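ok here's the first one, seq then struct tokens
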Amino acid sequence: MTTTASAIALYTDGGVIGANPSRIGGTWAYCLVNTAGERIVEASGVITPIQANVVAVTNNVTELLALVYGLERLPMGWTGTVYSDSWVSLQRVFLAAKLRNVPTWLVQRLQALQKCGKLAEMKYELLDGHPTKAELLAGIGKRGHKVSTHNVWADSACQKAARAARLEAA
């Protein structure tokens, strides 16, 4: 049986439905990957402004939300690498950057992760988002950062969640 402890990588992504900020909502996705490069856990969803307790959901909030949800899923003492195409979110999680315009409940969840020591042994890496097929083959994006099919999966999961939310709202 596969457990989260067998994961060596966490990939996350977030987005908004329509314009940023969105009065419709935002999307988030994460996946855990094992040493064979297989996704062993996948999760994604939508958060509305009402659920987020905000007037409109921003991309920065959904990127951070995806990271927090994924990190919460990992066991204490996990030592893998966290990948995101959001430098703002990576800084907020691992470098204690300011949390302006982040809902209080999300700040509290992030701070709980930071205080419990769960993040201490983790590495993190910025990815280039939305790579072309050629960039995926090369493994490097247009800004010189790594790219990954797992990040592409997370982006695709966000897009699917956004399409479903738009259909539901229609």
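and now the second one, same deal
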Amino acid sequence: MIGRHPMENRWSRRQFLGRAAGGAVALPSLSAILAACSKPGDDTGGSGTGSAATEIPIATLENPVELPVTMDPIAADTPIESGPLVLYNWADYIHKKVVAEFEEEYGVDVEITTYNNMEEGIQKVANGQVTPDVFVPTVGYLRRLVERDLVMPLQHELIPNMLANVWPSYSDPGPYYDLGWNYTVPYTIYTWGIAYRRDRVSDEDAAAQGWDALWNPEYAGEISLYDSYGDTIAVTIMRNGSLDVNTSDPALIDAAKVAILETINENEARLTINGVYAKLPAGDFTVAEAWSGDIVGAQWYLPKGTGTDVLGYWRPEPGQTMIGNDSLVVPAAAERPRLAHEFINFMLDEKHGTDNFVNWNGYQPPFTSIEPGALIDQGVVPENLSDAVVTEAMFVDDLTPVELTPEVEAIWLDAWTEIKAGA
């Protein structure tokens, strides 16, 4: 059974996921960041160097991509460096107890350096301001990192736990965004849905309403939407009746903008990042747009004496659920690449990866050893949050937000700018 989380007021990766707090509007685009960090002689189109200069297509479930390998992986017999290992990660997105176990086993120190958003993280890697050995990008940025030769291919011989413990779809044929897992291994996986207070909304009502719960005037003043343009616009597109969560249709995007402003202005819905894992347990919200990892982690934020049975999570039926994951990569400039491989393999160990999930961040790793029923039976995930458990079939078949082209992303960002101005 999970105990109460040891850091109840942590400032975490959740606060920044997906360009949190609308920060993407004020930040330079990734294309601009990479162009500014170009080396002399590189093309300025953000396409990369060497054989990676040919633009890599954007990967989707329907059109998976094998990313080009423009350099050799390290040799399997590369000596393990003495450390310290530099881990560049979202704040509080890894259990320090697990990190300490790695330090003890390998006799090295681990330096955890954090970033506030993905643009900042990539910019500091690209310009050499930070030289990490392990980096934790969201998959929508991977193609552009590879185009710029900012990540190195993995030496599979040094990561046996990938084949031993991770869902086979991640290695054979590999995830749609990295066929053959040339550059990535998965870190966590999650879905999108509705978190709700079961002492105010019945499971039956939550299922009947679906996404419409975020527009229900009965919950006025108690509705939370993520302050993240990609997440909330995509959810609203689904609420409006389309499954095109990566749409380039200006009409769908505009309709989502109008609907978001409607629930903000008429129902006093609030744009938050901590609405699910902190504010909903505290009773400030009744319903909230949610990542599954946030509602699992919400049990650690409940007031003393409040049982987990007050928390609920609804997600759409299979085939209509959005699913995403974060990954671990080794930057091309890593000074300790062999130690980085050891760390990645360590995090893919069933014990360490599960401990990180169960006792720290609430975000599930895609391990074959994690049986949905067992998670519930063992109290890791309360039975009333069973829909927060992620399965391999969902990863293979469900909706996946992917990288948008710069032109399409500009339309989404323009809509979000108007939403923020009118909120």
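notes on #2: Residues 1-28, 38-53 have pLDDT under 50 and may be disordered. The CA atoms of residues 58 and 233 lie 20 Å apart.
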